[in-house]
Specification:
The complex is a heterotrimer of chains A (248), B (362) and C (593).
Chain A (H helix, E strand, L loop, with lengths): L3 E12 L2 E7 L2 E3 L3 E5 L6 H8 L6 E6 L2 E2 L6 H6 L2 E4 L11 H8 L1 H5 L5 H11 L1 H5 L10 H13 L5 E5 L7 H16 L3 E6 L2 H7 L2 E6 L2 E7 H5 L2 H8 L10
Parallel strand pairs in A: 4-9, 4-10, 7-8, 8-9
Antiparallel strand pairs in A: 1-2, 1-3, 1-5, 5-6, 10-11
Helix pairs in contact in A: 3-7
Chain B lengths: L18 H32 L6 H16 L7 H21 L6 H20 L8 H10 L4 H10 L7 H23 L13 E4 L2 E4 H23 L1 H11 L1 H6 L4 H23 L9 H15 L5 H21 L4 H7 L1 H11 L9
Helix pairs in contact in B: 1-8, 1-9, 1-11, 1-12, 1-13, 2-5, 2-7, 2-11, 2-12, 3-4, 3-6, 6-11, 8-9, 8-11, 12-13, 13-14
Chain C lengths: L5 H18 L2 H26 L7 H19 L3 H23 L6 H19 L15 E3 L2 E3 L2 H23 L2 H7 L4 H6 L4 H27 L9 H14 L4 H26 L5 H16 L4 H12 L26 E12 L2 E12 L2 E6 L6 H8 L7 E6 L2 E2 L5 H7 L1 E3 L12 H7 L9 H5 L4 H17 L15 H13 L5 E5 L7 H16 L3 E5 L3 H7 L2 E6 L2 E6 L1 H6 L1 H8 L5
Classes of the chains: A alpha/beta (248), B mainly alpha (362), C alpha/beta (593).
Chain lengths: 248, 362, 593
Amino acid sequence: MKPLILETQDLCVAYGRVEAIHKVSIRIREGEIVTVIGPNGAGKTTLLSALMGLLPARGDIRYQGQLSSGSTAVDKLVGKGLVLVPEKRELFGSMSVADNLLLGAFARHRRGLRDHAKTMDEVFAIFPRLAERRTQEAGTLSGGERQMLAMGRALMAKPTLLMLDEPSLGLAPLIVREIFRIVQQLKAMGVSILLVEQNARAALQVADYGYVLENGSVALENDARSLLDDPRVIESYLGLGGSHSIAA
Amino acid sequence: MRCDGTAAPRTPAGIGVNASIALILVQDGVTNGAIYALLSLALVLVFAVTRVIFIPQGEFVAYGALSMAAVTAGFLPPTMWLVVTLGIAVALVDSVAALREGAAARLPMIILKNAVLPVLALLAVRYLPLKTLAYPLQIAVALLFVVPLGPQIYRLAFQPVAEATVLLLLIVSVAVHFVLLGLGLYFFGAEGGRTPAFTDGGFNLGASYIQFQTLWIVGIAAVLIAGLALFFEHSIYGKALRATAINRTGARLMGISADLAGKLCFTLAALVGAFSGILIAPITTIYYDTGFLIGLKGFVGAIVGGLASYPLAAAGAILVGLLESYSSFYASAYKEVIVFTLIIPVLLWRSLTTHQVDDEEH
Amino acid sequence: MALITPNRALIAFMLAVAMVPLFAAQFTVTLVNYIGLSALVALGLVLLTGIGGLTSFGQAAFVGLGAYTTAYLTTRHGISPWGTLIVGMAVTTAVSLALGFITLRLSGHFLPLGTIAWGISLYFLFGNMEVLGGHGGIDSIPPVDLFGLELGSSRAFFYVIWATLLAAIVTTRNMLDSREGRAMRSLRSMTMTEAMGINTLRYRMVLFMLAAQFACVSGWLYAHLQRFVNPTPFSLGHGIEYLFMAVLGGAGAVWGAVFGAGAVTFLKEWLQDLLPKLLGASGNFEMVVFGLLTIAVLHRARDGMWPILMRAFGNLAPQRAQTGSVEPALPLPRRDPQPHGSEVLQVVNVTKRFGGLVANDRMNLTVRAGEVMALIGPNGAGKSTLFNCISGVNPPSEGEIRFMGQRIDALGSREIARLGMSRSFQHVRLNADMTVLENAALGAHLRGRKNFVQSAWRLDREEERRLLWEAAHQLERCGLGEHLFDAAGSLPLGKQRIVEIARALCSDPTLLLLDEPAAGLRHLEKQALAELLSKLRGEGMAILLVEHDMDFVMSLADRVVVMEFGEHLAEGLPQEIQTNPKVLEAYLGGVEA
């Protein structure tokens, strides 16, 4: 079996007195796509924020075998190849596409690695649309292009583990398909991916393994293929099963 | 020039201002305006990146000028003790933070960089023949013991509350201003300081005489402004600072830490402030408390630019310089009143054109 | 019974202060006089900074305005000090309203910057105007004459100063504990406060004006205490010192101002004496110490020293019980109910763009009285955006919104609230430091009339009882009866959402907009919420809610509208929606063409 790249053990995250994430344990192996799916408000974004060190958490987080639970600064994790593409994209709106991409390589630049030009060409090869728009301001891009730029910027950091928060959010089906095709392509290039999605079918189709998050806890986990056919996944989303939840 | 309150306005009776007086006033205005422009750019930068309204900017002007005066007189800049003390304080604070994170391995580097380095610099400079040193080297020595105060102050006063409201940061900023002002009196005394001009003399242009130092000021200010522009447009660190100003979270996710960005722009602001002081010290006597008013005039410029636009801030600062020189001619007693009242129409215009914003939200 | 209670401590303090002129040395009397004068200015800053979240470095200039007005008018025109007090306050009102008008619309930091400029300008003006005596100032100011008693000595004037301060403190506390006071205490959360129908700009102006008045009165007192004024005590540096007093003492509490003024004044006196001896050099070392002290306090205790003292004190005295009672009162008048089934809200072809993004694209929906309409859709579908369009928080780019037959798409959230629409927020927006009861009462703001002057003098008590009774009643209905006197921030998030609903109900709304009301609730709490909403529906209220909990939505809603990509995807009865293939697709997604 391939080595673990990220592992959490009984991870809990609370906002004030309210626990948003309760005892979540997940594992991601090298070169895999692991997806965390679940309805709105299940705690998916909170989970990613905690992994990235943006939120204080209890429980263990091991990245590349090293314990990083909560105390490691974001810039250190980015330097070690853990990169998050956030749900809100968080682009630098009044800067050009090229500058946005360049800043993706900031952590590498600080460590003395100066291969940005080559990396940018690789990113342009994956997202030709960004090459066309390289001098355009990021704030003027369309929704799909923004997501591409957010992913491209993350790739500039040459991530070991790329975490994608709802890459399909608010995008039309054609563009969603394009984004997921690229996710698979990245996997083929050897990037491990943690994919958080509300779009369960699309996510499960590209993933190796999946977790269903419900009310802050893992309600189900299995091979992606098995989850795809599991009727309980649908119930979790639309509440067809009446008042009981699938965790019960 | 300082006039007592009873002086009547010096309007030449019956005639308009002749061309040579106008030229002198413009020369004065542009010279001061260039300095205000430099300061206002630094203020906009610091605010955009850290949300700190950097009131102590003016103290850096005074410290720069008076340290330079000390060096040219053959003394060590008295601020070096402050740099050493704050260096040790930073080393302590950083060490505690590192130990809490369980990163004891970083301790030697922290202590070396923050505490040992300033002491070594101090020892090295002690044996330099300061008085006979080449002018650029004297400038370097003066800057060496003023500029590090920028990042040190950021680390000690602002970094622990970096996430606080603009208001709280502003109060901290004013407190730092008080501390530096009080220390300024201790270091430099109540006497003013003046330094020799970069180049003595001047030349006649038409009916008016232009000092070489004026050219130096305007020229160096222009070069510095261009340098800053290049830094922001073309270097990755400059772009990282801009990115932090545009989107804090986005910048953090790219590994641009807020601490780094904060220290970097405080260093720039300290450099700009201290250098401005060194530039004007040959033409104005600088006292320990002169910097405050100079810094505030930079602020008026920055506010013209809404604390956001660099070109508008620079233009506003030149305007402040001109307004100042003209009002010191026509109504010298009310010079400061006129300059600071300029802020009122500017704020009014901003208030009528800006949409109301909620401080609590982004 | 405990020996020390807050009230007894206060009385003991006041008695001790009252003894000062009788027994203390002249030097101490002078010092305590100055403390009183400074505390009055710092009290204004408590209002401005602690309550309003604004600040001013220019209060010393207002002190100067009060001092110079009386100095000039009494010496040059022979006007009585009482007359000049009124003139001074009128001038201060005019200046503060003008400054406020210019800066208070802008984000918070422009006011302090404006006051720095204004502080410097006025200082130079005092020093340069011949008619005001230039830097020499004005002397021979007559003493104040109170009922034929000439208050010439500083011992006699002592009581005037401290009585004024005490009156200011009492009226300030009264004012804060009222309808308008609650609005002032909520100013930092502008979006929420405006959505309660409260004009936040007006209250910021009032706070700035009051702070200026306190400073002006302090200046008037100063002039008649000293009988001489010059520009020095009104410089920017002194303005900053006043702010340090408020911040060090604790800008959140009225007594923080007194404590801060006392501590800074004594400390300054002591340090000015001690430090030069200690350091063997002269200099403004007390400035350095105050600066460092302020930084340290802001790092460690952002609310100042007063709360820390209170906590230490609280360990000695028993905790004040977290209970209270609400007196029964007449119910507030209500709006005319809408007939069941009448259309209350119509959203027609509403489009909202942010830059290049279209968040809402030609959305349509209708809500009727006596109906629960649910708005659902995947994350990012634009539901909260639509809510913000409807409630006027962020008006639409195109399209038409009608509420009770009136176009509202160009109105602000304040005007819309006035028409009878009330909302809760996706991210809870309560005033964490106020009690649950006070938070709910904020929602009833528009149902009261008494202003801050009336409440300062307690002329609002009847109305206040009715407002609080209404708030308590709505909280009871929502099942929060046992939390009335808890700080809102101490409740779990789910219950805080319910407080938001109670607050919205306090406005007696025709239409209730709820953004994710069930998030964070436990199963039983959800059931209780569903029951409450059904009951409100039965009373004829129209309810529009966004919710992710499908069990909750499907069992409660009369009709459901589904959004995707900012567009109207489907609409119908809950069971139709649950089996609609388009909806299933939207929620679960899919990559197959």
